[in-house]
Design goal:
Elements: E1 10-14, H1 20-26, H2 29-37, E2 44-48, E3 63-66, H3 78-92, E4 97-100, H4 102-110, E5 114-117, E6 123-131, H5 133-136, E7 147-154, E8 156-160, E9 166-170, E10 178-182, E11 185-188, H6 197-212, H7 217-223, H8 228-231, H9 233-241
Parallel strand pairs: 1-2, 1-3, 3-4, 4-11
Antiparallel strand pairs: 5-8, 6-7, 6-9, 9-10, 10-11
Helix pairs in contact: 3-4
Organism: plant metagenome
Protein name: GMP synthase
GO molecular function: GMP synthase (glutamine-hydrolyzing) activity
Length: about 260
């Protein structure tokens, strides 16, 4: 809960966690997202929906952020469908929403889009994002270069956008890397919250599997690099759509763990 009554907390819908090795060394997806957003622990409420946690009504929050997950939207997990229904209600209520990876796909599913395995295959590691015409004029991306790197780790994607949604950016394998689904609803297939240690650890652990899929693992490792523009997006989102919520000057300065 917030330290001040002048603003409502930001909700983080925690939809799953990385492998135990990454979790132990780098933290949960909710922790990574909270830090990348520049939010103090007292400014957030984390709900572990993948363990059947239930958020309060949308009106109880300033904004909602939806994490990534090892699960697939197409699995149709009961907790995922409940969360999708909550997101529909939150969208109807006008709550600012930002989804990431699984959260990006779940949000599209909730709002009438379609999610499936990407016919182009897996994207993992650091890859370039290219802004599309709609992205060149979007306020979230104001001042950013037309191409910038981002961390990725996914096999599924949005194959059909929800009605009224527009893609703002693409990658070599995915035309819907960053999507605006409403006036205050955005989502990214890539991971703004990942520092480069995350893909490095993932590729070290799963490199043999990726090689079996035909990926060039040494090339993936060599391309891992910082992604400062992508890392700024959640902070930008909150500054635009929940300006009443204070953000820490340095999104990485507060590394204390969350009780979630």
């Amino acid at each position: 809960m917030p330290a001040s009554s002048s603003f409502l907390p930001v909700l983080i819908l925690h939809t799953g966690d990385p492998h135990a090795d990454i979790l132990a060394s780098l933290g949960s997806y909710a922790q990574m997202l909270r830090r990348a957003a520049g939010l103090a622990p007292t400014s957030v409420e984390i709900v572990r929906v993948f363990e059947d946690g239930a958020p309060r009504a949308p009106q109880a929050y300033s904004a909602v952020l939806v994490t990534g997950s090892p699960e697939n939207v197409t699995d149709g997990a009961e907790w995922g469908e409940r969360t999708a229904q909550w997101l529909r209600e939150a969208a109807q209520a006008g709550l600012p929403i930002f989804g990431i990876c699984y959260g990006h796909q779940l949000l599209a599913h909730a709002l009438g889009g379609r999610v499936d395995f990407n016919p182009a295959g897996r994207e993992t590691g650091t890859h370039d994002i290219e802004l599309l015409p709609a992205g060149l004029n979007d306020p979230l991306l104001d001042g950013l270069p037309t191409t910038f790197p981002a961390q990725m780790q996914h096999m599924q994607t949005i194959v059909t956008l929800p009605p009224g949604a527009v893609s703002l950016a693409r990658s070599g394998k995915d035309n819907n890397q960053l999507v605006r689904m409403g006036d205050r609803i955005l989502s990214s297939q890539f991971h703004p919250e990942f520092e480069q240690d995350v893909p490095r650890a993932d590729i070290a652990r799963r490199g043999a599997d990726y090689a079996d899929e035909g990926l060039n693992v040494p090339e993936l490792v060599s391309q891992i690099r910082p992604t400062p523009e992508a890392a700024s997006l959640v902070r930008r989102f909150l500054a635009l759509y929940a300006p009443q919520v204070p953000l820490m000057p340095d999104p990485r300065e507060d590394l204390q763990p969350l009780a979630a």
